[in-house]
Design a protein that fits this description.
The protein has 268 residues and is of the alpha/beta class. The chain has 2 domains: 92 residues, Orthogonal Bundle (Helicase, Ruva Protein, domain 3), CATH 1.10.8; 162 residues, P-loop containing nucleotide triphosphate hydrolases (Rossmann fold), CATH 3.40.50. The protein is built from 12 helices and 5 strands. Helix 10 crosses helix 11. The model has no long low-confidence stretch (mean pLDDT 92).
Length: 268
């Protein structure tokens, strides 16, 4: 209903309808992409943390799409609520390895394949583990050992560990000191700042064909305060605000309409 009322071609705050070319490039996204590009060249360990909805998984997808497939092999792992043995099976399968045998056999085969990709194929591996806040201590300890090549003198692959902020608390535990010392890049998402929230909303409305101002500054400020710069929360509350605005014939979304939308979202 609100699409015709506000002259929009589609709901600009529905990520399923967003073309990759129309995505908003935030400071967080650019910072993560720059660091990922650096990591792929030095083959180190990078840790990236953000609250749900900030866009870290989207940045990983953009990074994967940007890679020259003839120069790098990237494997993405998201199922992290598993045992050490299940993790080895998952990684072995993604690398095209036999999963027969125990952990020791699979560990040896994985290390050999990593070295083969780096030394013989000249196509170093990039492993990205998403939702890593759920990884158990055993997997984190073994990830450190996987990085140990040539008596710890050679980095053969890049390891990207991404998760929610409490992943940082896990890595601070003494048991993970050796892994923590190997982390080359550590980035925490900040969220959209004041100017970015305005630009983000304006950008989204513009790509849906909005040719006029349909939201005022006070409403944007309220959306920012509610979302704390989280793009997913902004998308949700903006969709609801547009719906409410069209139902009450508000040509411009004002603070009152936005607060009603925020109140409604808070019930979920």
């Amino acid at each position: 209903m609100f699409k015709s009322f506000y002259g929009l071609s589609h709901n600009p705050f529905d990520k399923q309808l967003l073309k990759a070319s129309d995505s908003f490039v935030s400071k967080d996204h650019k910072a993560m992409m720059d660091r990922l590009d650096y990591l792929k060249d030095i083959r180190g360990i990078g840790v990236f943390t953000a609250s749900p909805g900030m866009g870290k998984s989207y940045s990983l997808r953009c990074f994967s799409n940007s890679l020259n497939q003839s120069l790098y092999q990237m494997e993405y792992i998201c199922l992290s609520t598993i045992s050490v043995l299940e993790f080895y099976k998952q990684l072995s399968t993604s690398l095209g390895l036999d999963i027969k045998g125990g952990k020791t056999t699979m560990f040896k085969n994985i290390q050999e394949r990593i070295y083969y990709l780096y030394k013989e194929k000249r196509k170093p591996l990039i492993i990205a583990i998403d939702e890593a806040q759920y990884l158990n201590s055993g997997i984190l300890k073994d990830l450190k050992m996987l990085m140990n090549h040539g008596y710890d003198s050679l980095n053969c692959f890049t390891l990207i560990i991404a998760g929610e902020p409490h992943l940082n608390n896990t890595l601070e535990k003494p048991i993970h000191e050796a892994l923590r010392q190997r982390i080359t890049v550590h980035y925490n998402y900040n969220g959209l700042d004041d100017s970015e929230v305005t630009d983000y909303i304006s950008h989204k409305l513009a790509i849906a064909g909005s040719g006029k101002t349909i939201i005022n500054d006070a409403a944007i400020s309220a959306a920012h305060s509610y979302s704390r710069g989280n793009p997913r929360l902004i998308d949700n509350v903006m969709t609801y605000a547009l719906d409410l605005g069209s139902q009450t014939n508000k040509e411009i979304i004002d603070a009152e309409t936005m607060m009603l939308a925020i109140d409604a979202q808070s019930l979920f």
